């Protein structure tokens, strides 16, 4: 392969060829790409060039890197309509995916400063802080911190929190998620989220901050979610 095709750098030519293979279905969701050494041989180039090509594909969300296992074709993104009242497990199941939630830690602690105002709390008030990871088809795609109000859900930590928090609220407290205030914007994965997702610190991510209300219009909890940038798309239908 020539180093340039017109004015296009070599690494972009390789990136486009790999993208074309994914688009045509020669490489499908979940497939592992050839190793970097094999790609160097296929495209007659250096590892530096191959890594730049792969980084470009990763930035578009076409592929992702799994620690010590190589590069893989990214599954189709989950789509989320923020105007619909749903939960992660139901969202996955409705789209033919297999969900799983794993509790990393749960504790009763002083409310963090950045969620004190949304929850209408005072300094040194207590919250339940749950740190959890959400999986779709076995792939970790979302790191979530749930800040729950002890006065609304007493003894929350005594329940199994490795599944749907929505179901725990309904079954044990007769509380139902109703309305919410949601903000979302691009960011970079901080250390804790990256470590939980098995990703590199600083990779692009979508940050969701959600204040949830129950069926009585009372504040229920506040969520901070870091989604892999290649795992979610936001769609809103106002028809």
From TrEMBL:
Protein name: Phosphonate utilization transcriptional regulator PhnR
NCBIfam families registered for this protein in UniProt: phnR (TIGR03337)
Domain HTH gntR-type, first and last residues per copy: 8-76
Entry keyword annotation includes Protein biosynthesis: no
Entry keyword Transcription regulation: yes
Keywords: DNA-binding, Transcription, Transcription regulation
Biological-process GO terms, alphabetical: negative regulation of DNA-templated transcription
Listed GO MF terms: DNA binding; DNA-binding transcription factor activity
Organism whose genome encodes this protein: Serratia marcescens
